[in-house]
Amino acid sequence: MKRQIRILGIDDAPFNFDEKYSAAIGVVMRGGEYLECVLRSCVTIDGTDATAICTQMIKNSRHRHQLKAVMLDGACLGGFNVVDIDELSESTSLPVITITRDKPDMQKIKQALSKNFNDWKDRWAVLQKGKLHRIPTQYNPIYIKCSGLSLEEAKEIINISTIRGVIPEPIRVAHLIASGITRGESYGKA
Questions:
Q1: What local confidence, expressed as pLDDT, does residue 164 receive?
Q2: pTM value?
Q3: Which residues contact 119 (CB under 8 A, 6 or more apart)?
């Protein structure tokens, strides 16, 4: 696989639950070294439009035909607005990888969904799709799900796009931009 493949990383901006929308920021990078483009959209906080918004973001980008993979910071944007990575991969013909630093506590997630959403079973079903993989790194492990590519291909893309630490640059940079435009200065870890 080429080291300069174009990868789209997507993360949401920090938000308050009294807001209706959260910014969704995408960055197109060559591997983990060169930022080519910043994309911006909005997702409904705790809504159901994240998959459609990500699909639209990709299809409307002038970089669409050069993209080789999509990375998401977790499986949800804007709270519990769940991204169906299988649907996103199929609708864009691109492989999709979700990445988190910490292993999701699925029991707590299920409890939060059932307590707060009438359609919690639908959201839960999407979150249950696919296998969660623990990927060791030289630091702490990361946890990923992938669609449209093999686990080995996902690991290769993660290795190509990670410069320091454990989080690939497309996600790390999307996080920095999202938090910076919302709070005035970026902070926190992707």
A1: 87
A2: 0.94
A3: 48
